Amino acid sequence: MGRIFISTLHSRDRYDVACHLQSLKDDYLVVIRHDADQIKQEVNFFIIRIAGLVLIISIFVGIGTMIVLEKMVITPILNLRLDLIKAGKSISNNQEPPKFYSASTQRHDELGDVISAFMQMFTQIHQAITERQQAEEALRVEKEKSVQLLLNVLPQTIAEQLKKQPGLIADRFEQATILFADITDFTGLASQISPTELVSLLNQIFSSFDRLAERHGLEKIKTIGDAYMVVGGLPKPRKDHAEAIADMALDMQQEIYRFKREDNKIINIRIGINTGPVVAGVIGLKKFSYDLWGDAVNIASRMESHGKIGEIQVSSSTYELLKHQYVLEKRGIVQVKGRGEMITYWLKSRQPTPVESQVKTNGHRQAPSFQGGEPMT
């Protein structure tokens, strides 16, 4: 066998192999040529086809995967996100539990476990918040009841002071006007009607007095049996305390006429008024009471008990504060228990204004007489 020669042409796309065969008698050269140009093109086309096929398959697989994931994972997660937002708004705005998107389907996978845990958590939180709000509302109602009960026995300013600073509350007022009113012949009335009717009538009368006290800005102190006690000038001082008490006393006389006994007899009251220094304070541990002490209180009580039915008796100290604005009649010297002789007055009415006086004067003028068609002079 002879020598072999190998050569490449055209960028290694073509191969030539030459071999000199010595076995032959003559000199022969065997040449084999391999052209790979067409094969390479086929290989390139094959690679392109495979790549395109892989790309198409990848696109379809990706789209299919996205569709499946959107239905099974993405959409439920987005719905769960919306449910979380709705749950937060529902709790913040104290609304009824909303209809959640996640509750429309039942899942038995990990995401289903998350949704189930969320629903249980929201139910527990909403129930706990509802119970807390109900407890707070009940507490608020009870607190309002307690405050209202406290205001029924104490003035508002004293009740607020007692809530802020529990303890002994006592103040001295240099001048206040006290009124005592008593329903006359109450014992006889009690023997004629039933207890229910008696309490009902007494409640109606004293309730009307309470409205008068509120209208005139006065402070009701207490009722004892058929007696009613009210004061002006405390706990918030005011300069016109005597005038306010006088106006209420006159209104009480008019108000009592609205009530009748079963035998149609008129119910009468006796009123006494005095002005002077008093001490006011709260006493009691469980049942609070706002009360007054002082000589002025005792004198006011004596003005009522030593008065007359249907009259308003005032002391000289009250007279000095009312004499320029009210019509008062001097009663004279009265022997008062525990005080001796005292000069007292009857409060009749408020002095008429100039306009009222003019109207009254005109009303008293007699009309001219006429005779024969001509007025007589």
From TrEMBL:
CDD domains: CHD. It is found in: Membrane. Its main location: membrane. GO terms for molecular function: adenylate cyclase activity; ATP binding; guanylate cyclase activity; metal ion binding; peptide receptor activity. It catalyses: ATP = 3',5'-cyclic AMP + diphosphate. The chain crosses the membrane at residues 46-69. One of its GO terms (cellular component) is plasma membrane. It holds the Pfam family Guanylate_cyc. It is an enzyme of class 4 (lyase). PROSITE patterns: GUANYLATE_CYCLASE_1, GUANYLATE_CYCLASE_2. Residues 177-304 form the Guanylate cyclase domain. Residues 354-377 are annotated as: Disordered. One of its GO terms (biological process) is receptor guanylyl cyclase signaling pathway. Keywords: ATP-binding, cAMP biosynthesis, Lyase, Magnesium, Membrane, Metal-binding, Nucleotide-binding, Transmembrane, Transmembrane helix. Its EC number is 4.6.1.1. InterPro entries: A/G_cyclase, A/G_cyclase_CS, Cyclic_nucleotide_synthase, Nucleotide_cyclase. PANTHER family: GUANYLATE CYCLASE (PTHR11920:SF335), GUANYLYL CYCLASE (PTHR11920). Belongs to the adenylyl cyclase class-4/guanylyl cyclase family. Homodimer. Can also exist as monomer. This is Adenylate cyclase. It comes from Lyngbya aestuarii BL J.
